């Protein structure tokens, strides 16, 4: 894990070296100050030479100015280093999340993912900046201070330093406790985010059911847990800082007391005494620094662990090593003995066999939950099958790169997902960078032209989050326009019009028929006219594919299709 952490420094080697060396020089200057005072008190003061004293002060001023400049570098460029590393980690995480498969998103909450991308990495930049630097400087300053104190009065130096390991081991003890506390804290904040995300995106349902009080109660529970876990972490932190503070002050008192004794006994000069007291404070600095790193570390590292965990989640659907990028598919589809199940639902499809010729329109019909949508989602490899094979144009889909395979398949679903943005952006999502004419052409073919022209902003009309500012029919037309631009060889229409009223449905049907022209089309529909128009009807039930044929053929068999027909369509 440390190796992975430090790999993020590689692009910023120069920045790191600059920041690091400035911090080291600043620390050395800090160390030199007590020595300078020591010389002033013991050598310059007794000489009563004013010009020397003024010269001494002027050079000290010079040193302070240099120190200030160094501190600027460390604060600004050091944080720049940390922020860059943090943002690189975010980028890697986001990139990785794009590759994760449907199965992953089925089983993880949106709020959790957002939380990992934002909060979890918030402290890692601080760690990246301060961690190695502070630790190195602290150790260097401690060693330096000890060496100088030792040379002045070794007995007192040894006595003073006995307390150092005590404070550090105490900090380590607290750090461990805090690490656990912060891990819980991040888990709670993720839950909290998930709760808020769920509430806000479902606000229309919440208000329609007038369940605000219930939502608030649930929120309070999450909020309370989040507050408590944060409080626990801070309590440990408070114990740690109070105990180390009192220990450090006891050291200073101790140095004052012993030092005074040495001075009175003429074993130490005044200058040495002052230098000693000042140095004992200089060395308290690094202990504070180490303490700070130890305090910050668990928080940053808890987030980093969650980050690594996520990066190491391998996508369960990925390109094969020797995957080929298919250029164009005719659209001959072949399911051979395909078996598939979801997590916790193992036998959704068992040894399914289905052949669809290029250009053919096949209607999948059957009861809800039979597996029609599932059959379709196997084609673009949203999920990988357990056994058997899915072939397009005789090539196994697993042999194709996901990008090339998916570029050939278009899906129009019942619930359209639109992105927050303009009509133009949402249509152009089908073919990024599409020209103005192409967008209008797609809109026209999807019968969306009039809708767009009726808006004052035209193509630049904002449609709201998930397209809330559009009607169901308009949203569906937009998703069809998107598909005209994408122009795939294979088209899947999964109950594309089921959510619409009959009139809107009839209007959109024309666009869909136009869209399916010249493409292999799999259509899942409830509307008899759509089903009748298909070249072939495939009946899917819990037992798999049970019948295939034309409308009249299947009715004549008086089997599953006949029963379905009686139940679903006789009333229309
Ligand atoms: P249909 O489209 O024929 O109505 P589906 O293919 O959507 O049926 O569903 C088939 C079965 O698989 C159902 O029992 C459903 O509960 C289950 N299922 C569908 N999607 C998932 C999923 N993402 N995770 C787990 N089970 C699922
Ligand atoms: Mg379905």
TrEMBL record:
Annotated localization: Cell membrane
Pfam families the record matches: ABC_membrane (PF00664), ABC_tran (PF00005)
One GO CC term, this protein: plasma membrane
Gene Ontology molecular-function annotations: ABC-type oligopeptide transporter activity; ATP binding; ATP hydrolysis activity
Membrane topology: Multi-pass membrane protein
Positions of transmembrane segments: 12-33, 53-77, 135-152, 158-175, 245-264
Family listed: Belongs to the ABC transporter superfamily.
Name by which UniProt lists this protein: ATP-binding cassette subfamily B protein
Source species: Sporosarcina limicola
Lineage: Bacteria, Bacillati, Bacillota, Bacilli, Bacillales
């Amino acid at each position: 894990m440390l190796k992975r952490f430090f790999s993020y420094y590689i692009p910023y080697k120069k920045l790191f070296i600059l920041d690091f060396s400035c911090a080291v020089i600043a620390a050395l200057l800090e160390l030199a100050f007590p020595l300078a005072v020591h010389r002033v008190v013991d050598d310059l003061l007794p000489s009563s030479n004013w010009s020397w004293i003024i010269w001494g002060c002027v050079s000290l001023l010079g040193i302070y100015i240099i120190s200030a400049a160094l501190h600027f570098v460390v604060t600004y460029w050091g944080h720049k280093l940390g922020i860059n590393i943090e943002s690189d980690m975010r980028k890697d995480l986001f990139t990785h999340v794009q590759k994760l498969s449907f199965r992953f998103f089925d089983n993880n909450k949106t709020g959790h993912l957002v939380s990992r991308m934002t909060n979890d990495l918030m402290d890692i930049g601080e760690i990246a900046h301060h961690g190695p630097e502070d630790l190195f400087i602290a150790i260097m300053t401690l060693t330096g201070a000890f060496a100088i104190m030792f040379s002045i009065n070794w007995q007192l130096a040894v006595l003073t330093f006995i307390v150092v390991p005590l404070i550090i081991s105490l900090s380590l003890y607290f750090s461990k406790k805090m690490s656990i506390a912060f891990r819980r804290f991040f888990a709670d904040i993720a839950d909290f985010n998930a709760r808020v995300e769920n509430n806000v995106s479902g606000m229309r349902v919440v208000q329609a059911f007038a369940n605000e009080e219930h939502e608030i109660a649930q929120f309070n529970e999450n909020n309370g847990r989040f507050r408590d876990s944060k409080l626990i972490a801070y309590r440990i932190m408070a114990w740690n800082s109070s105990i180390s503070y009192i220990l450090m002050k006891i050291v200073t008192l101790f140095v004052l007391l012993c030092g005074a004794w040495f001075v009175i006994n003429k074993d130490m000069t005044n200058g040495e005494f002052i230098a000693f007291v000042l140095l004992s404070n200089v060395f308290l600095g690094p202990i504070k620094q180490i303490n700070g790193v130890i305090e910050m570390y668990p928080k940053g590292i808890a987030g980093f662990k969650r980050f690594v965990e996520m990066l190491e989640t391998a996508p369960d659907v990925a390109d094969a090593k020797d995957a080929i990028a298919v250029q164009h598919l005719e659209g001959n589809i072949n399911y051979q003995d395909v078996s598939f199940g979801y997590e916790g639902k193992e036998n959704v499809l068992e040894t399914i066999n289905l052949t669809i010729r290029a250009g053919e329109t096949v209607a999948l019909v059957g009861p809800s939950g039979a597996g029609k949508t599932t059959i379709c989602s196997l084609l673009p490899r949203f999920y990988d099958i357990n056994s058997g094979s899915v072939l397009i144009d005789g090539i196994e889909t697993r042999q194709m790169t996901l990008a090339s395979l998916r570029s050939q398949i278009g899906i129009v679903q019942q619930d359209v997902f639109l992105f927050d943005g303009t009509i133009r952006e949402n249509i152009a999502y089908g073919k990024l960078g599409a020209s103005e004419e192409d967008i209008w052409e797609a809109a026209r073919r999807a019968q969306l032209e009039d809708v767009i022209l009726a808006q004052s902003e035209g193509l630049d009309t904002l449609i709201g989050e998930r397209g809330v500012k559009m009607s169901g029919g308009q949203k569906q037309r937009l998703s069809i326009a998107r598909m005209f631009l994408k122009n795939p060889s294979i088209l899947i229409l999964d109950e594309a019009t089921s959510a619409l009223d009959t009139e809107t449905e009839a209007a959109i049907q024309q666009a869909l028929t136009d869209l399916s022209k010249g493409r292999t089309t799999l259509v899942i529909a409830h509307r008899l006219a759509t089903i009748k128009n298909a070249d072939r009807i495939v009946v899917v039930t819990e037992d798999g594919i049970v019948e295939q044929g034309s409308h009249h053929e299947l009715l004549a068999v008086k089997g599953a299709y006949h029963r379905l027909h009686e139940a679903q369509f006789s009333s229309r």
